[in-house]
Amino acid sequence: MARIDEEVEILLDLDEPIQYKVLLHNDDYTTMEFVVDILMNVFHKSLEEAELIMFEIHKAGKGVCGIFTYEIAETKVHQVREMAKSSGFPLLATMEEV
Asked: Is residue 82 part of a domain?
């Protein structure tokens, strides 16, 4: 019996993953030094970048720390909350869809 081989072309429509921005919110208790430390250690910002973002948070009430996929943004928010809690600060981190 003759064998028929068929080539099947499968087209995958892959969309870019939805991105989320991670925000830090200003409060009256968290020190500027702690915010800079968070930005450097959790978000891997340089000292200069961390200070600029920290001043933006201080002046505008909140600031963007980075843009990530959902899972990474969620992890960063959790890391910030745990570090703030263990240091006795009420620093709030949230994420919003871009």
From this structure: yes
| Per-residue pLDDT tens over the stretch 58-94 | 999 999 999 999 999 999 999 999 999 999 999 999 9
Measure the CA–CA gap between 63 and 96, rounded to whole angstroms: 12
Enumerate residues 6+ apart whose C-beta is below 8 A from 45: 39, 53, 65
Q: Structural domain of residue 42, as residue ranges?
A: 29-97
Q: Phi and psi for 95 in degrees, rounded to 5?
A: -135, 145
Q: Are 64 and 26 in contact (CB under 8 A)?
A: no
Burial degree of 74 (CB within 10 A; 0-12, 13-18, 19+): middle
**pLDDT score recorded for residue 15:** 84
Q: Which residue's entry shows tokens 């920290």? A: 54
Task: Say how far apart CA 43 and CA 65 lie, in whole Å.
Answer: 7
